[in-house]
Design brief:
homodimer; alpha+beta; 2 domains; three-stranded antiparallel β-sheet; 6 helices; 6 strands; globular; DNA-binding
DNA sequence: CCCCAAATGAGAATGACTTTCATTTTTAAC
DNA sequence: GTTAAAAATGAAAGTCATTCTCATTTGGGG
């Protein structure tokens, strides 16, 4: 059905068959751009912003526009292939959702992110939704605090330029 | 110390003494604008957007600028007097934080918000932070789903103009 | 191959804030 | 009370992430 041969990047085409399947599942046409973006999402590191993905992709695929990156990431996230994470008013961060569901513990100083999962919490959430007659479709659980490193290095690192509200006092 | 008399709105001044204390606690000067905004926050309904507060306030205080509303709401939220809630990329919503801590269960269709509290979840969160050596400073727990009403009225209401990602399929 | 709906990219538009700055207020000191 | 310095304000401009528009290109069924 699908002959294996090399594309212009000397990458075996069948590397992409898995990615193609995903794009097909979304009911979209298979384009080089989407393959490149999807490949980046799957193989790159998690918690990237759309902007970062765009810049990174631009190096090898200068022809990809950021609109395409945003559009496709949205589609992927709408269909559960990637998870969109937002903290405060900061740009959305995305991650490939092939892993088991998990939540995030974020350091408000260095913005480091630790992933965790906790079945008990998941179950309690379901129970709560039930109590109010809701059908749960999604949830966001983000914990914020200071990571071990930032607890010691008090005030050494400058607070990242974006403000951080949420009960912290930035002016001390 | 403070003589009770009427201000130009024929409202007893001591109505505001509580509000003034809050503003003082923030290290800010007491202005008519801040009193008006704070009064709105305390007595108005919860989960308002900055824009909504601005518009509502404009009726009685046409001189208040939206910059002032945003600035003051931010200050209040930084100091824990109000809680900032964000869902998806939608405008931040604020609520007076005089109540016990609670989280939100939001209907993705009608955007109705139910508040709940669950001590078990709170404790589990602390435990998780501990496990990673984090000092917890804050957290966000937002549950999303369909409220009982919206479960039955399938597709009757148009989806609010702002898209809703998160594993829902808007195009069906 | 051909065609056309789907996809793309460049740039304009949007929308929620934030910042700037010239003017007005507050308030602490007389 | 006056007053002056510091803080606050509002109008408007700026920012920034994201979305939209639209003219052009492209994938893929026929």
């Amino acid at each position: 059905m699908e002959t294996i041969h090399l594309n212009e990047n000397h990458t075996p085409l069948n590397d992409n068959s898995h990615l193609k399947e995903i794009i097909r599942d979304l009911g979209l046409k298979i384009t080089q751009q989407r393959l490149a973006i999807l490949n980046h999402v799957v193989t790159g590191k998690a918690h990237f912003t759309a902007q970062a993905a765009f810049e990174s992709l631009s190096k090898t695929h200068p022809e990809i526009g950021f609109a395409t990156v945003y559009r496709f990431l949205r589609k992927l996230s709408e269909n559960g292939y990637v998870t969109e994470v937002r903290m405060g008013g900061l740009p959305a961060r995305y991650e490939w959702a092939h892993k088991k569901h998990h939540d995030h513990l974020t350091c408000t100083k260095c913005q480091g992110i630790v992933e965790f999962e906790n079945q008990e919490i998941e179950e309690l959430q379901e129970k709560i939704a039930d109590q109010f007659g809701f059908v749960l479709t999604d949830h966001v659980l983000e914990l914020f605090g200071l990571c071990p490193k930032c607890q010691t290095k008090e005030g050494e690192l400058p607070v990242p330029k974006n403000r951080f509200s949420s009960h912290l006092e930035p002016n001390n």
